[in-house]
Amino acid sequence: MSQYIIEAYEIEYTYPDGTKALNGLTMQIEEGRKIAVLGANGAGKSTLFLHFNGILRPGRGQILFRGRAVHYRQHSLLELRKNVGIVFQDPDNQLFSASVLQDVAFGPLNLGLDRDTALARSRQTMRETEIETLQNKPTHFLSYGQKKRVSIAGVLAMEPQVIIFDEPTACLDPRMAQKILELLERLSKQGKTLIMSTHDVDLAYSWADYVFLIKNGTVVGKGSPQQVFIRPELLHNCGLTTPWVIEVHRELINSNLIVDSAPVPKDRKELFNLIRNTSIGTTGYKAAQNY
Amino acid sequence: MLLIDHYAYNNKLAGVHPGEKFLFFAVTVALCLALPTTFTTLVVTLLMAGAVVFAAGVPWRFYLKLLLLPGAFLAVGVAAVAVSVTRAPQDFIWAIHTGQYFAGITRQGLDNSVNLFLRSLGAVSCLYFLSLTTPMTEIADVLRKMRMPTLVIELMTLIYRFIFILLEVTRQIYTAQSSRLGYKNTRTGFNSLSRLILSMFIKSYRQSQAMYDSLVSRCYSGDLHHLSEPRQWCARNILLIVTVDSALLLCSLYAGGLV
Ligand SMILES: Nc1ncnc2c1ncn2[C@@H]1O[C@H](COP(=O)(O)OP(=O)(O)OP(=O)(O)O)[C@@H](O)[C@H]1O
Ligand SMILES: [Mg+2]
């Protein structure tokens, strides 16, 4: 049985202006998974993530890290933040220094590493995120995507166990988005737990191995992508749409081009394979029979 | 502002150790202020112009424009020094007489003001040299090595970053407003401007909160640790700086009649 690394039980949070952003939300996150959190704008995703890192404290309810309740004292907060890193939605909120290297090295130095180790680690992550060439540019001359990568590097350099990405691919060009996904894949292989919020249902469907749907500050759906995304009314309810892979698959079944028993394909590749295999063999025959 | 910063990161001297540039700046500005002969100040102004335009490769038109900025302030200040108001008539070069008072320009007042003007110009050129060739982050680095209190340096770092965030935010709001005809005439213009200023305050407050959150999420606990890349001092450059500044010192002592 795999262990829960982060758990949230019945948490409620109200912003000082009276907005109730989280409303009895319960969520358990298994170690080493790739988790997508989806929900309409204002559903409470970013607010939830700030709780996982101890920046916000729930008004009611409890957050557990590795089975232990988070105490909001300096020491245990630091421990939590060492293990859980957040890449914020807006990189401008995260980059505090005009120098890229300064910003990336900030976290490692805070961990108490000595200068050489911190420098080596920062260098390493800057290579991984392909920002070494930006290192002599001030952050205010970087493009949005470049800033995003710097802010990712700043968190990766701390080597946390759990990495939370608040909309990592929004506003990125397709190539850069692909690069970031490859990076996430590598991190996942290293055994890190990844949590991502996104509005991109296609991405969430093929990337995640577990999905949470959030609406008005509570979880309204969870499960593997194949379970969650085949419920159109639930998705609609959360302001989301059905991933195109599933829609095409359903359409193929409806027009009797493939048999219903075939498992729902996980991504574009599986779908194409399904189409290729069936069109020459069985379905060709099946379609012919129908006439 | 943005262009100065652009050149600070992209000039031919960007690779030089910031300490060397700071040394050159500090010694030269000290000479310019301590030995304010016309000769010294003129040489310093020209020297810095040469360093900025030829050594660092900043276009001379841009540099000239920069010099004109404080030039205007200087001219006003200097005019005030040049004019003296007295009761008794002095050996004015030129004067007007109103009632009991004389207002005019004396030989000495003129000398003083010219001297002041040149001195300020020289000092300003030195400052421009530093800010056009050395990025702010590196200046902060040098100051840190010189044991400047960390509080001051952290403030410098954050303020510097926020200046650009605010500039960006202002630009965005302004564009958004003018694309919806917010500045089509003076009246709407003032209205839009007041809203721009208001939302700037709110936005910068929100943003500073968000930035604090993100610092805290990376284990910030009161100091902005700092990591700088080890850079090599270059003996040749230091020799050059020492030579140039000693020559300047000797010449100005000679010109000032002290030797
Ligand atoms: N600092 C704040 N003060 C007051 N209310 C806030 C604040 N931040 C967020 N909210 C409110 O809390 C609710 C949840 O916001 P949150 O940012 O968590 O949503 P989200 O799911 O991340 O949305 P998005 O997809 O747009 O990023 C919203 O109604 C929002 O208006
Ligand atoms: Mg959000």
UniProtKB/TrEMBL annotation, chain A:
Domain of life assignment: Bacteria
SUPFAM superfamilies in UniProt: P-loop containing nucleoside triphosphate hydrolases
GO cellular component, one term: ATP-binding cassette (ABC) transporter complex
Membrane topology: Peripheral membrane protein
Alphabetized GO MF terms: ATP binding; ATP hydrolysis activity; ATPase-coupled transmembrane transporter activity
Predominant location: membrane
Database matches in InterPro entries: AAA+_ATPase, ABC_transporter-like_ATP-bd, ABC_transporter-like_CS, ABC_transpr_CbiO/EcfA_su, Co_trans_ATP-bd, ECF_ABC_transporter_ATP-bd, P-loop_NTPase
Subcellular location(s) per record: Cell membrane
Tagged with keyword ATP-binding: yes
Residues forming coiled coils: none
One BP annotation, GO: cobalt ion transport
Family annotation (Pfam families): ABC_tran (PF00005)
Keyword Hydrolase: no
Keywords, in A-Z order: ATP-binding, Cell membrane, Membrane, Nucleotide-binding, Translocase, Transport
PANTHER family (alphabetical): ENERGY-COUPLING FACTOR TRANSPORTER ATP-BINDING PROTEIN ECFA1, HEAVY METAL TRANSPORTER
Similarity comment text for this entry: Belongs to the ABC transporter superfamily.
Biological role stated in the UniProt entry: Probably part of an ABC transporter complex. Responsible for energy coupling to the transport system. Part of an ABC transporter complex. Responsible for energy coupling to the transport system.
Name the record gives this protein: ABC transporter ATP-binding protein
Record organism: Desulfoscipio geothermicus DSM 3669
From TrEMBL, chain B:
Keyword Cell membrane: yes
Cellular component annotations (GO), alphabetically ordered: ATP-binding cassette (ABC) transporter complex
Keyword Protein transport (UniProt): no
Localization terms from the record: Cell membrane
Transmembrane segments: 22-55, 62-85, 116-136, 148-167, 238-257
Domain of life of the native organism: Bacteria
CDD domains in alphabetical order: EcfT (cd16914)
Record-level GO BP terms: cobalt ion transport
Entry protein name: Cobalt/nickel transport system permease protein
